[in-house]
Amino acid sequence: MPVPNQEKWNAIATDFWARWQFPNCIGALDGKHVVIQTPKLSGSLYWNYKKTYSIVLLALVDPCYNFIVVDVGSYGKNSDGGIFSNSNFGKALQNGKLNVASKGRENKTRIRLKTSSIWR
Known about the structure:
Blueprint: H1 6-20, E1 28-35, E2 54-61, E3 67-75, H2 80-86, H3 88-94
Antiparallel strand pairs: 1-2, 2-3
InterPro entries: HARBI1_dom
Domain DDE Tnp4: 29-101
GO molecular function, one term: metal ion binding
C-alpha cells in the first residue's frame, strides 16, 4: 500500500470531519484477533486474552472504511497498542516520517492537535 502524502492525509482528516465530526483524525485504528490452530512449539506466543490461539490483524481505515495501513501476523498475546508502537506505521508516525502536519492543523472546529502530544 502506498504511504499517503500530506495532501492525502489532509483529505482524510477533512473527510473524517465532514462525515463523522472527528476533528484532526487521519484514520480509525483497530485490531482483530484471527483464530488459528495452535502452532507447534509456539508456547504461549499466540495465546490471547480470549483464551484462543490467534494472530492479530491491525488496520487503519479512512472515514469510508477503506484500508490505509494493514499490519498482519503479530502474536495473539500482544495488545493493539504494543503492535501499533512496534509496527512500521507506528514507528514512522512517532519519528515524523509520514508527511502528517506536525504543527497541528486547524479546521472549522478551531480545535488544534499536535501529533506529538499523543505520545507524551
